[in-house]
Design goal:
Helix content: 25-40%
CATH architecture: 3-Layer(aba) Sandwich
CATH topology: Aminopeptidase
Largest sheet: 5 strands, mixed
Low-confidence stretches: 1-13
Strand content: 15-25%
CATH superfamily: Gcn5-related N-acetyltransferase (GNAT)
Radius of gyration: 16 Å
Distance between the termini: 33 Å
Number of domains: 1
Number of helices: 4
Mean pLDDT: 88
Length: about 170
């Protein structure tokens, strides 16, 4: 996959950003952003998974395959015709059948290009995704956040996220 670097913004304001459903033509840009997300996580904690050489392309292919899935929502943030962020949300059965059932959502991935952060774009992506979840009758949303990603942890806490379980890893 060729890397399509996002141009540095020149005074782009959050009002200049369009949040919309992803299209097939967004696949390469989403794949590139996903690779940046993986690299960002690797820089935070080298024990987090690394992407394979064609990881971005494979990710883009999976996204494209799910664009018509009624249980999946992929949104992009666009600035000046370029995709500069995305979020992937799915409706999934998180609760085994021996528990009272609730429709749950899982925020699988979210990323905003580093040149566009701290402008409310992530918040706009999440707000649109939450509206979609509500329209589908989803009663709660779960997500993973890297332990060492303090900015993300603060963001999720600021919009009502709370820790309900801690995921641990024992290296063998």
């Amino acid at each position: 996959m060729e890397r399509s670097d996002v141009e540095k913004p020149s005074r782009t304001h959050v009002d200049d950003i369009v949040i919309r459903s992803a299209r097939i033509s967004d696949g390469n840009a989403i794949g590139d952003l996903w690779e940046q997300l993986v690299l960002f996580h690797q820089q935070l904690d080298e024990s987090l998974p690394m992407a394979i050489e064609e990881g971005g392309k494979l990710y883009a292919d999976r996204i494209i395959d799910r664009l018509n899935d009624t249980q999946t929502q992929v949104l992009v943030a666009e600035a000046n015709g370029q995709v500069i962020g995305f979020v992937l949300g799915v409706i999934i059965d998180l609760v085994p059948e021996m528990f009272v059932q609730q429709i749950g959502g899982f925020l699988a991935d979210i990323y905003v290009h580093e040149d566009y952060r701290r402008r409310g774009i992530g918040q706009k992506l999440v707000d649109e995704l939450l509206d979609w979840y509500r329209s589908k009758g989803v009663s709660y949303l779960e997500l993973y956040v890297a332990t060492k990603n303090n900015n993300a942890r603060e963001f999720w806490d600021s919009i009502g996220g709370r820790d309900i379980m801690n995921r641990k890893r024992i290296q063998l």
